[in-house]
Amino acid sequence: MPILLKKILDEYRQGLPKAKQGDKLYIQLYKLLSKQIIKLEIPENSILPPTRILAKELGISRSTVLRAYEILIFDGLIISMKSSGYLVKPKLEKSAETNIVKEVDTTQLSEIGKSFLGLSDFNVSNSSENLAFSPGLPPLDIFPVTQWKNLTNMYWKEVKFSNLSYSPSSGIEKLKLNIANYLTLTRNIKCDPSQVIIVSGSLQSLYLVGTMLVNPGETVCLEDPTFPNVHAVFKGLMAKIMGIPLDKKGISLAVLKKLKNKPKLIHVTPSCHYPTGVKMPIERRLELLNYADEHKTYIIENDYEHELNNWENTLPSLFSLDNKQRTIYIGTFNRILHPSLRIGYMIVPPQLKLPLEIMLKHSHRFVAPSVQFVLNQFIEKKVMHNHLNNLIAITKERKLYFMQTFNEIFEGTGLVIHPNEGLSLQSLIKFENEFLDKDLVNLLSQHNLSAHTYSKCFISEPKEQGLIMGHCSISKNIIKNKLLRMEAVLQIK
Q1: Which of 288, 325, 390, 475 has the largest CB neighbor count within 10 A?
Q2: What is the per-residue DSSP string for 155-207?
Q3: How does residue 97 score in pLDDT terms, banded at 50, 70 and 90?
Q4: Going edge to edge, which strands form the sheet with 452-453?
Q5: What is the per-residue pLDDT across 324-337, written as a single tens digit (0 to 9) for each?
Q6: Could you give phi then psi for residue 203, rounded to 5 degrees?
Q7: Averaged pLDDT for residues 199-222
Q8: Confidence grade of residue 22 (pLDDT, cut at 50, 70, 90)
């Protein structure tokens, strides 16, 4: 019996002895249902049981149920939907009683809790439904859905009851081994599979590492500009954040060396800086490792988009160059497969392996084993390799087309694409005129177009203005149509 039908039936039977004498059955049913709807015991947008079924279960006539429903419609509590039954009407305005109060009593919150609460207006999500031109999205239309579906079906067909129990908190062994081998081949990273930690994505990696290593008030150095969500995580953890500017080789060692408070952590994106695309050369990588060793600082190497930027012109990763075990390597499959997958990994120095495993065991536990199994098969059966080759080819094609089309449409408008020789998933658009990126982003969003503000990536003043626009999640013909739509919306010629 459906849950809602059982709830109505139980309430009806309990209410019969208390029913007002003289009330007809349809009035009793109407009062019961209206009370449940008003008190939200029956949620908004619920479909009420069909009249025939409800009448049968209650032991009353269908006409009685119909009359009760008709009064509910008259009261504005439900609506009749053709071929779909009766829907509990959503309320346009919440009453003061049911409204969620925006002011939060913080007296019982921890200092960390208060710190994260302060990030409520720190918008870092990329949850827009508009693919054009949302940054950080791969070509979603080329993902091999059929192969993934077949591998998923194979898992559930062959799974044993024992596989449905708890899994190791740091990830299943086969996947860890395959990721270790994958990184040996693609990034020259040599590590024991036990050093691989499976996570849901880069943000979870950052939160775990920050919680494990950084006390409130200790210094964390971030590239300036950087990902707003990276800034948000460490801000929430109450670290003292220092924004370190970039030069043509990446994070500035000259500025780092002048700091009075030596950092506990440094977060860098050497393969492809977000959002400028700066690639850190090997000499700067070695300088940074020497600095970390000298000051006993840990480096988080966020190898952002490394498949796209190291497939042809390979540079050794910081992790592979580090013989002092000061580097934590983080990567994600969400950027090369699709963001809804929610799976990534860390490679950690041996001395950090046990603390991280214990933290996972007592908090997040693990990524769903079914997803790990399918990803493992995805790698083993060479589907990943074929997909990466296709991904790189399509991303190149769409990036070039985006740049050519953008330059044609927006020539002379003051919107200029920042040069980036890498193969990023997005382009940085800088302003030659005095535009405010926030205003342009808001205007675009009103017309179902997405972009991110460049200014929000900055930690220190002055904050430069610009747009960050994804250029490869949609096909070429849609790219052109959406750019023409953008031109019409902005009207800045």
Answers
A1: 288
A2: HHHH--GGGGS---TT--HHHHHHHHHHHHHHH-----GGGEEEESSHHHHHH
A3: very low
A4: 415-417, 426-431, 466-470, 452-453
A5: 999 999 998 888 88
A6: -65, -40
A7: 94
A8: low
